[in-house]
Amino acid sequence: MTVAGLASRGARIYMGARSAEKAEKVITDLKRELGNPHADIIFLKLDLTDFRSVVEAARELKSKETGLHGLINNAGIMGVPFSRTKDGYEIQFQTNYLSHWLFTYHLLPLLQSTALPQPGTARIVNVTSDGHERFTLKEGIRLDDPNLESESAMVRYGQSKLANILHTKQLNAVYGPKGKESGGIIVAAVHPGHIDTNLNKQATGMAPAAILRIVTPIMKCTGILDHEAKGALSSLFAIADPNFIESGAYIVPYAKIGKPSKMAENDLLAERLWEWTFKMFQEKGYL
C-alpha cells in the first residue's frame, strides 16, 4: 500500500524483493489497481537475509539514479522460530535491523547529495513497532549475544524493533538537519499500527499456525487488527508530507508524533549499537 500511495502521486519507486517473478506480478497488479500502466515502479533485487545482496542492491540503485528523495526500510518478519541466516545472524535481527542499516549506510551519500541544495528534501523512514517496548530486554540490546537463541521469538522481535528506533535516533544525530554531518536528511521511526498482514500469519514462534489462522480473523473483527490500507498512512506521512519536519520523531497510528520507550530514547545505547554495527560490517568487508 505504501508503494501504491507513492506511485499514485507520480513518484518513481524501486521496490526491493527477493523474487523477480513475484515482484513483477505485484507491480503488474498495482498498476492495474491504480489504473495507470505507466506507473513508475521498478523491481530491485534485494534479499535481506544476505548481506552481499544488500550491498549489490544499493550499488545497483546508485548506478541508475543521481538523486534519492526517500528510503523506506519497510520489510520485516515477526515471531518466527529461531534460525540463522547464511551470514550467521538470527533471522529477525538481520532482516529487520542489520540489513536495513547496511542498505541505508550505502545510500547515505546519495541521500545527502539530494538534500544538500534544500535540506529536508531527502528522508529516511524505519518501520518499527510498539513491540520495541512490549517485548524488550532489561538491557535493551544484548550486543554480546544479539542472536538471543535462548530467548523467545517475540523477545528477539522486540530487540530488532528497538534497534530500528535506535538506528533512527543515531541517523538523526549524525545526518539529520541539526546533525554532526549537517546532512539535512529528515528521519523517522514509524509504528504503522496493528495491521492484518501476512506478518501475523507467519508468527509461528508466538503461536502454532493453526491457532493463528483462527485468532487473526477474530482480532480483525474486534478491531485489534486494522485493515492493511491503514498500515501505509504513517509511512506516507513521514516520507512525503511537507508538514512533517520533526526529524528523529517516533510516529504512531495514524500520522501522529508519539513517544517511544525510555530505552529507545537512550543516547548512549544508540551510539553503542551504531558503533557495534559499523565495526561488525567493517570487519566483514561490507563497508
Structure, explained:
This protein is an alpha/beta fold and 287 residues long. The protein has a single domain (68-284), classed as Rossmann fold. 45% of the residues lie in helices and 11% in strands. Strands 3-4-5-6-7 form a five-stranded mixed sheet, with helices on both faces. The protein has a two-stranded parallel sheet with strand order 1-2. Helix 6 (153-175) crosses helix 10 (267-284). The two termini are 32 Å apart. The model is unreliable at 207-212 and 214-225 (pLDDT under 50).
Q: Structural class given helices, strands, pairing?
A: alpha/beta
Widest sheet: strand ordering: 3-4-5-6-7
Q: How would you spell out the order of helices and strands?
A: HEHEHEHEHHEHHHEEH
Mean pLDDT: 90
Q: Strand tally, please?
A: 7
Helical residue percent band: 40-55%
What fold name stands as the CATH topology? Rossmann fold
Number of helices: 10
> Largest beta sheet, briefly?
5 strands, mixed
Parts with pLDDT < 50 across at least 5 consecutive residues: 207-212, 214-225
Strand content: 5-15%
* Terminal-residue CA separation: 32 Å
Tally of separate domains:
1
CATH superfamily: NAD(P)-binding Rossmann-like Domain
Question: Topology, pairings included?
Answer:
Blueprint: H1 2-7, E1 13-17, H2 20-34, E2 41-45, H3 51-64, E3 70-73, H4 91-115, E4 123-127, H5 131-134, H6 153-175, E5 186-190, H7 198-201, H8 209-221, H9 233-240, E6 249-252, E7 256-258, H10 267-284
Parallel strand pairs: 1-2, 3-4, 4-5, 5-6
Antiparallel strand pairs: 6-7
Q: Which features characterize this protein?
A:
alpha/beta, five-stranded mixed beta sheet, 10 helices, Short-chain dehydrogenase, 287 residues, 11% strand, Rossmann fold, globular
